[in-house]
Fold this sequence. Notes:
With 94 residues, the protein is mainly α. It contains four helices and no strands.
Amino acid sequence: MKTQTASKEQILDQLQELDPAEWQEVLDFIGYLKYRQVERREHPHRAEMTARDLLESGLVGMWADRDDIEDSLAFARRLRREAERRRDDGNDAA
């Protein structure tokens, strides 16, 4: 499979086609990619988790029985923002 490199122009063109309400998700994904890049640099021999590993980890469906979470995507985004805020404030133990 051939890997294709995107240009800044292509990325910006695609971003302009999105509804601005979706831009936060783009920023969330960029944050994830930056985190992953640091993790790979700091832990180059750590194995990637496969789909099977993820399914067997217990993470998938872990909120299925929670009745206090109406929108799991919004809930997850809120948790990420709070974790990032703690990390930026220097209060996160990680």
